[in-house]
Amino acid sequence: MSNCLVAQSGGPTAAINASLAGVIDAVIKSNTYDTIYGSINGIQGVLQHKIISLNSTFEDKPDAIHTLMTSPAMYLGSCRYKLPSYEENVTQYEFIFETFKKMDIHAFFYIGGNDSMDTVDKLNEYAKTIDYDIKVIGIPKTIDNDLVETDHTPGFGSAAKFVATSLLEIAHDTYIYDIESVTIVEIMGRDAGWLTASAALARNDYNHAPHLIYLPEKPFSTFAFINDLNKLLKVKKNVIVAVSEGIKDDKGNYISATTAAEDKFGHAQLSGTGKALEQLVKSTIGCKVRSIELNVLQRSAMHISSLTDIKEAFMLGTEAVKSAETGLSGVMLTLNRDNTPDYSVSIGNVAIKEVANQAKSVPLEWINEAGNDVTSEMIDYLRPLIIGEPNIKYKNGIPDYLSIKHLI
Amino acid sequence: MSNCLVAQSGGPTAAINASLAGVIDAVIKSNTYDTIYGSINGIQGVLQHKIISLNSTFEDKPDAIHTLMTSPAMYLGSCRYKLPSYEENVTQYEFIFETFKKMDIHAFFYIGGNDSMDTVDKLNEYAKTIDYDIKVIGIPKTIDNDLVETDHTPGFGSAAKFVATSLLEIAHDTYIYDIESVTIVEIMGRDAGWLTASAALARNDYNHAPHLIYLPEKPFSTFAFINDLNKLLKVKKNVIVAVSEGIKDDKGNYISATTAAEDKFGHAQLSGTGKALEQLVKSTIGCKVRSIELNVLQRSAMHISSLTDIKEAFMLGTEAVKSAETGLSGVMLTLNRDNTPDYSVSIGNVAIKEVANQAKSVPLEWINEAGNDVTSEMIDYLRPLIIGEPNIKYKNGIPDYLSIKHLI
């Protein structure tokens, strides 16, 4: 028997540990691999010799597996490290594969988003060139829901549930005062508006907020925005707006004032879109205005995660192990929505080349004509993803998550 | 039989509807009052004829009472209206008491914070001058926990549980990267540091964050802050800081850059303390730094409220009705911590004059010598207040709160 390796990469989500739990559970229950190793801080952990065995922590410990499933962020830590191409720097690849040989590692499960799938692709391609037998499987996750070829991504449903719940609670908070007000809620999503769209799930019998929703897929006009607000303020006291951090004007410039910084993958680092609009409303309309940035709680608020999301993430983990066992490599697993009246999904897979370094935007037909709301098709697509509440254990009044002292 | 009136005022909390549920439940179960009226938007509702009967919505409907108990913000709406003294403007008092007479109202329950207790006091005093028989009872609430003469205030425990849980989840989010970082979490509390102190409840076996805690009760020195950070960054990768929005320098100036606005009670409106410190760290230390403002979710996140808090708030509501029945007036009910090994409280009351327009700060002996943490006495005081999780119902993936369409 040989060994296998698992790692996590990119930004955290509430569901990324559920996929890890699925991988660990499946490896422990099958007879294919002796040891399941975890690399700390993604592929960087292999380059830095930070590899731990996971068997003793999880073998015969269903409680630990359950707690891992319901713990936020990343048990194995993360990285934002982009592997150079092997033509550019073959030394890193040689080092990685020497480690794999020494540790008898013949399967590598990488749980991550867009940039992580790039790593999966590169390792799979390099393995072929040296004829090393390894199955490299990508397991998707991202709160942005912007991976192509999958109906949706693990982590998105939980983030969407947090956003929808927070919007409803902010609405309750807002309606109590008998004065005109505009509340602007800034939601994550650099280039794709999926998470901002999920604010619409806060609507119910009595609450129609958010009354306006702006996604980055359509150019944002400050003139139209103020016009939209003025129209609404004629008929309602409190207007609540959901806005993506990544909205841009018709020239492609971010509305946010602070767009200078870029991360290592060349993505602009945004913040302040809500604040910028708050200032605009203050100076043009002049009513009470507040902006709220939901910030990292969107991706880390495990306590309000979606059971559907957590279960699917776990299932993807177990399926990844089965896929490696059946000889697949260089693929990312996908969630395919079944064509049934009740929501259900099947797991498929796609060649990693089809997904790496690509992004899935919100289809324009799911945004209304005026560009200030989403359609009912969008809501029908989103709703099933936030259903169900996992059983979170508490100790001393706070969630009893799995210890990550090995990261601290 | 006569009638009674209930209203809510000030900023929302997760527990203020539980007190309302307690009042309604007790009135319906007793034979003292025929009708229980609710004033919409606090005392303003009386001045504006916005008074509704609550009997039909809640009589023989234990489910509605339970849902009200676990719904955020204020079912009856709020106001920030400060009654003038009756020497200044007797017309308003005459109008209010004519309404009371017409509607046969002989008990008034006002659920609120500091400023609301001022209203209770004034109404009670005016009633005496015209010899009108009414029992005016104040029921405390505020996430700030700054009312005097009560061990703690309803609403605080739930806000503290949200803060502690969020801090733990932010810590999980922060520890995943293998790079030096400073995370600054800005917490509500204009003049009192109770809520910021509760960030310490996020600490457990493996998590020691927040590593630094700054309350408004001690002058804040930017020099000492950078010094504290530099010392910690020598021994740990990720430093997490909890800071009150209301910290001031030794001259009494708010650290926040935007301190111009004041609310109607003359309180400075703060925001941006976290952002100001983020800029400071960026320019002096230069490592990765992020600031997070927990914002209104602190007071509205019912889904992560404290069962202890909700139960106590309900109990205060029922006790308020009993107090009026026994002839008390011009008092605020209080929570007194019993001197027992296990946490329990008894309900008392205090003359409203002893509490109105006063504020309870954190005692300096519960802040450490260096002014950058709280003591174990503080943690022992806080811990019992966040214990337990109420049963929140969900529908379509979001909390199934009580409709507030009468406010919208």
Structure characterization notes:
2 copies of one chain form a homodimer. With 408 residues, chain A is of the alpha/beta class. The first copy, chain A, has 2 domains: 2-155 and 302-358 and 391-397, Rossmann fold; 158-299, Phosphofructokinase domain (Rossmann fold, 3-Layer(aba) Sandwich). The first copy, chain A, contains 13 helices and 13 strands. Chain A has a 7-stranded mixed β-sheet, sandwiched between helices. In chain A, strands 7-8-6-9 form a 4-stranded parallel β-sheet, sandwiched between helices. A two-stranded antiparallel ribbon of chain A has the order 12-13. In chain A, helix 1 (16-29) packs antiparallel against helix 4 (62-69) and helix 1 packs across helix 12. The longest helix of chain A has 20 residues, at 156-175. The model of chain A is unreliable at 258-270 (pLDDT under 50). The interface between A and B is large, with 64 and 64 residues.
